[in-house]
Every structure is written in C-alpha cells, then in structure tokens.
Amino acid sequence: MVSLYSTLFSSGMKAKWPRRIYVELYAGAGRSRIRDTSKFIFGSPLLALKLKDPFDKYVFWEEQPTNLKALKVRARQTSPNADIAYVQGDCNRRTSEILAEIPRGSTEDTVLSLCFADPFDISLEFETIRALADARFVDFLVLVALGMDANRNYEHYLREDADKVDKFLGSKSWRERWATAQWDAVKFTRFSADEFTKSMASLGYIPPPHYTMKEVRSHEKNLGLYRLALFSRNERAYKFWDQVLKYSTDQKTLFDWHVFELSHRMDRRDPESRPRLCQGQPRL
Questions:
Q1: CA distance 267 to 1
Q2: Phi-psi region of 280 (alpha: psi -120 to 50; beta: other; left: phi over 0)
C-alpha cells in the first residue's frame, strides 16, 4: 500500500511541484525477512527508490546504527544516483536535522514532501509531526500502532504518571474525554485513532473518515495490529488514497495487474493526475 501510494503521489504531483521529497521515519535496514521463512522482501525505502518517477530527494531516518549502515549499502546498490540524506538517532530529538535536509522551497521553486512514519509502537511524538508540518508542506502516511501497543499496554498508559499517550496525541487532557467515551462503549483503539485525527486536524490536515485508516491484522489470530492512515491538507491526496484502498491486494502476484489496470482507469478519468504506472513496478 505504501509503495502504491508513493507511486501515485510522486507521479501525480510531478507536473505540479518542481521538487518532491520522500521522508521516512523508522526506515529500517531496507530489506526484511518474513518470519519463519527464508524469504526476503524489499523494505519501503528501497521500494520508494525504485519508482518509475523517483522523488527528487530522499531523507531516511533510522535509530539503530547497524540498520542505517545496511540501508546505506542497499540504497546505493538500488539507486546509485539518488540524492539521499541519512539521519541517525531518536527522531523525536533530531527534528531540526531532518528539517535541514528538506528544502524550504520558494514561490518559483515549490517543494512538496511525503513523510512515511513506520514506528513499532506509539513512540512517535506528535510534536515531531507538528515541527515538520509547521515548517514545510508535508503529507503524512502514518502507521498508528494502536492494537499492537496502545491497546496491549492500556492499563499502564492509563496511569496518571504515564505520558506516552500524551506525547503521541499531543494532549494531556485525553483521559477526561476517555472517561466520557467509555460510557458509550467506545474501544480504546477507536478512541485513540479519533484523538490522533483531531490532533492532525489542529494542524490544518483534512480529517479522514475512520474507515480509510486501513486496519492491518495478524495472520495468526486475526488480531488488529495497527492502522495505516493518510493525512493531507489537499483533497487530491485522498483521491489517491481511495485508489490505494480500492486496488491494493494482499496477493503479491496480483499487484502488477492492479497497478496496470489502475493506470489506465486514472488516465481516462483524470489526465492531470496521470500516474503513469506500469507492470514493471516493484511488488509489495
């Protein structure tokens, strides 16, 4: 889904924005092994580098030095001529360094960025998002780890002396609203997702309907792990995301066909956003 959206974003915005920047927080090592198998797949950074219409610059952040070292080698092998910046450390404490790598742009040289945040839990602080959103034109694709972290550690996070949810939502008053929401039998995962959406709306992002926050469930027990959510200040982005939700599939062998079909349908319907996809795109 991330690869398909990145494709639509980069190709669709190519004629409208002179420079497009791809930012990834929690980028990892660039390649992953599927658990309990010997199969490896490309990670999202390498998929972003392999787009038909690449971004003009890439900014990869990763906390673990060994992962970042591996990513540098694999990124250079994948796209030797790509303009790539790397930032290592805690992204919540390296915001200024990340911003320094994203061009400011000007009236004649506008810059649009896509930031994919892929944390393992809810450790991404809202102030980090605010800092990026206030200083640059950025769309966010965020993995909101509600099931695998917020719900699992619910009792701990509810304590008054715990501030992880406070930092994630950018709010210290959420407990009061949660106390009210429980009377309506609202689940904590749904409540947290709605609160995060409200926080993004406070920055000027159009609040997406909850059903568009794509839920990803575990294969073993069919438990909700997280939601993949798009946040943009422009309706065009949500049209792209609707296409991703409609045409993405868990069956990797069908991905190329869906991309090929999607390109033809969007070409006929909206020539301006023509994503120019083809069967040669990397598989998810």
A1: 20
A2: alpha
> Could you tell me if residue 206 is inside a domain?
yes
The torsion angles phi and psi of 231, rounded to 5 degrees, stand at -135, 125
Range of the domain at 175: 2-251
State pLDDT tens for residues 13-40.
Answer: 999 999 999 999 999 999 988 888 999 9
**What 3-state class would DSSP assign to 257?**
helix
Residue 43 forms part of a structural domain: yes
Which amino acid is it at 64? Q
Q: Tell me the one-letter amino acid at 32.
A: S
Burial class (CB in 10 A: 0-12, 13-18, 19+), 106: exposed
CATH number of the domain that 196 lies in?
Answer: 3.40.50.150
156 by Cβ neighbours in 10 Å (0-12 / 13-18 / 19+) ranks as exposed
Residue 278 lies in a domain: no
